[in-house]
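FW: tagging you since you asked about this chain on Friday. Here's the raw sequence from the shared folder, copied in full. Didn't touch anything.
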Amino acid sequence: MKNASGISTRRDEAVTRTATDATYWEKIVEGDFAVPEDRPLDDLTVELVELLGDTDPHVRDELAWRVFTTWIHRGVYDDLLAGVGDGMCEGLTVGLGEDGSDTIFRRSFSILILAGVLTRDNEIHAVHPTNVLRWGDQGLGWFVRERDLRGFVPGCGWAHAVAHGADFMAALTRSRHLDEGGLMVILDAIADRLLAPTSYALIQQEDDRLAYATMALLQRNVVDMALLGPWVERLASSWEQGEPTQQPVPAQVANTIHYVRALHAQLLLGVQDLPWATDQSYFQATIGVRVELLGALQHALRTVGPWYRPSPNQP
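HL: got it, structure written out here
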């Protein structure tokens, strides 16, 4: 009885704390996200970081993520970006390797905040390249090793690790500190993620988010077809036709096909910056390898199944 009572008390305290936190942060949102003066920014930030892992989607998404992102965008953390980025990287390690546990929210929303930090640095050029490259390594390392690929979790809202990882990569690709080698590391991380065996079918537009991040990378016009060609071939090798089987298509194969189709569609139709982006001109320039890459993607997609005509240059 004593143990049960103690557990109950702790649970009651947790519920009370969350309710108090929600009320406090709701007032901040209602006040147009003005930074309160009753507490130090350090204390507010520590609490925001904690709430990023909350299982209540209202607390996590509507309050903590919105406040944190808005403050980053408005320059509240301009002198502290390096520390915020390092803190988000620490969040990527919380429970890493677990699958189906609540720790996914802390990891997934940490990478989303890190994307915001990178976006802000792309605007004001405040962070040393060493920091950005370290965040890139840690973020991509988490993206490849993450096992919990759930999209929407009933009762808890969005986990969406792959989609949030894509948003991180979309911001990272725009960094002035990444050259051709760094951008290829991102492309290889996308391939590693897609080709890794998994039981999760990505059905919540993760393919579109990954393709959009890839479009942001291609827009740099730094990576040429000498590198992109083998990369496409690597993706296509996952669905090489073998003997007919009665087994279902592995999730990672279907995920890869859907991504390649999404990338082909975006490259063919063109994309634009999202309405809330500060730079609305990023996607206006022509992608130099567009025609060649479209050809490579089309060649790969013709091999998905027996339904497509061979390309004209095929025997």
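FW: Residues 1-17 have pLDDT under 50 and may be disordered.
HL: agreed, and Strands lie at 152-153, 157-158.
FW: great, closing this out.
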